[in-house]
Structures are given as structure tokens and as C-alpha cells.
Amino acid sequence: MKKLLMICVVLLAVQPLAAQEFELPPGKWWEDPRLSERIGLSVEQQQQIRDLVYTGARQMIDLKASVDRAGLDLAEVVNSSQFDPEAVRTAYGVFQSARQKLENERFEMLLEVRQVLTYEQWQKLQELKRRTQQMRGQQRRPGQRPQGEKPPGGGF
What is the CA radius of gyration of the chain? Predict the structure, then answer.
């Protein structure tokens, strides 16, 4: 039992790291001439990515609206004068389901975009992303700590 619990804890800790590695740069990166040239993105690939993102974005707009509606409904039952824990659980389940559908659509879109790229292009894109993140980390204001780092002495 302890082993199973430990495995679950490790998987939960690693999951965000794995998901972070499967991210794309923000914005319309495929339309950036310098980036496109650096990774060797063809005009055809740019159009494919543009089409995939457009289609995915349209679907995600509707899914996001479902999440917002479910969140509104959840807030309504939580704040009701006749508090009913079962109704809250049901509303929460609907909310979680809506969020999962949105995340699944986002993930599928990422998979489709990744399929357009060659392995080499993907590697170059990930390297550029890492460099950008490192540069942003180095451009902190004096005295600013990296996100999540605690001050010396264990203070808050």
C-alpha cells in the first residue's frame, strides 16, 4: 500500500513537468519569420499549423464557455441558502468534466501541431523555448527571486 501511495505521489509531482515539456511557445509563433526560419518551418507547415490552431481555438471557445457556465452553476449551489452537499458534488463533477474536455481538446491540438513538425524542428523549437525561459529568468529585477524560491533563512 505504501509503495502504491508513493508511486502516486511521484507521478503527481512529475506530471506537471512532463506537461510543461509538451508546450508550444506562446502566441502565433509559426508566423514569426525569424523563428520559422530558425527551425526550418515551410510555408505549407505554417498554413497547416494556422488551420489547426484556428479550428482548435474555435472548439475551445465553446468548451471554455461550458467551463464558465459550470463554474457559475457551481458557485450558485455553493452559495445557496439551502446548502446541499450532494448538489455541490454534482455541480463540481459537471465543472470538472467541462474542464477535462477543454484540456483534452487543447492536448489534441498540441498533438496535431506536433505531427506537422519534424523531430528536428521540434527539438529546435524546444531548445529556443528553453533559451527564452532562461533569458527571462536572468532579466529579473535586482532583488527579485525566481518564482517559487524562498528567501534566505526560511522566511516567507
Answer: 21
Tell which wins on pLDDT, 68 or 9: 68
Cα separation, 140 vs 156, in Å, equals: 19
Q: Which of 122, 103, 124 is nearest to 56 (CA)?
A: 103
* pLDDT one-digit tens code per residue, 23-58: 888 889 999 999 999 999 999 999 999 999 999 999
Q: What would the grid cell of residue 82 be?
A: 439551502
What crossing angle do the helices spanning 43-78 and 85-116 adopt, rounded to 10°?
A: 180
Q: Check: CB of residue 40 under 8 Å from CB of residue 101.
A: no
Q: Are 77 and 66 contacting, i.e. CB atoms less than 8 angstroms apart? A: no
Closest of 49, 38, 48, 12 to residue 126, by C-alpha: 38
Per DSSP, the residues of 5-26 read HHHHHHHHHHHHHHHHHT---S
| Neighbouring C-beta atoms of residue 24, cutoff 10 Å | 18
Cell numbers for 128? 529556443
The CA distance from 4 to 99, in Å, is 27
